[in-house]
């Protein structure tokens, strides 16, 4: 191989190598950028799998507290727990009484507080208050309370606070063991408890219990009590948010995305307790709002529609609106029923067409169909719940048919003929086109014009014609001319002539 060929081959190999490295590097950069974008979009989704941060704001805890209903149980010594009472809006209940009706143990319970008290005669008795909450497996739930226990003379108190993944207090499945055992504990002036547990079942139960002491009153008090779903609203909000967009890039809204749908997602996000996820979801929701706000509906259609078949405006409507909007036509029996759905919830309209990407549209009636006079045609444009409409009343441009003028006689008292019902009939003197008589055609299409005395008798051989004018001012073609017929016989008067006697008679 000579040097030139070797040099050319070396350059070619080097060029291919450089191109390959550049192409792979460019592809790798795109892949990394795409992965980063996907990672950014998925942040709020993957965070759902993590244990969310604790909530300490008591206002928030109170607002979203899931605790509502309570049941009271009692037992003597080692017997099983027995249902004693159910709270039905009344915060307190007597749980144990002696044979004389004296209350030995009672409980006070509402959504934010559970208190159980024992009198000195309740040494062999125990009382329990429970509340069961429906839960969503996989969600994290936070229990918050401040627990206090005390007894007379500073004795120990026998109490327990348990959190169960079931609701059977006689066969409890505990998920929180710190205070789950009913046993003696020192007086407690106030312990703040804040515990997070991931639900594995569809219900969880909080159990508060206290045993009586010999010769001493005792109390178990849990206040600032709440159980909240730390993941509440996240799943629903993500689902609702994604339903607004066509894909995960969040750059285009679905046709079904309206202000009402965005507001629903907003309300859902508002319930989220995880502030980080809440902020991220609101950021994505703001994209949807910005895209929707760009839609500013407008509509331009012809200033008038007409009924004259010779005029395009009698069968075609051209206009301009927001790009890709759905367009609906109504108000005329000539409009076919539309077939397009806007995809917006509760919008039952069927649209005939959509505007193009520039907002232009043109719609024609089926062949042989035309708008009718006085019809009120409405054009409605709609996109993603935003709508605008305009109405036009069809203008009558079609003149009445050519009227007919009957024979006119010089001695007639009326002049008759036929014209479109309800039209104004005008009779003209053809010699100078001045108006001679006027009248109105009846519902049967006939007219009869009365000749005033001042215009009688008519002049023989004079020519007349009539026109018909409708309510819209359209004037018909003139009728055929009619010449006044002379029906008056001439008078026969004697002719006087003087003759001189002897003259010849005139020839």
From TrEMBL:
Pfam families: Big_6, Endotoxin_C2. Residues 242-293 form the Pesticidal crystal protein Cry1Aa domain. InterPro entries: Big_6 (IPR041498), Ig-like_fold (IPR013783), Pest_crys_Cry1Aa_dom-IV (IPR054544). Residues 400-480 form the Bacterial Ig domain. The chain crosses the membrane at residues 6-25. Keywords: Membrane, Transmembrane, Transmembrane helix. This is Uncharacterized protein. It comes from Enterococcus haemoperoxidus ATCC BAA-382.
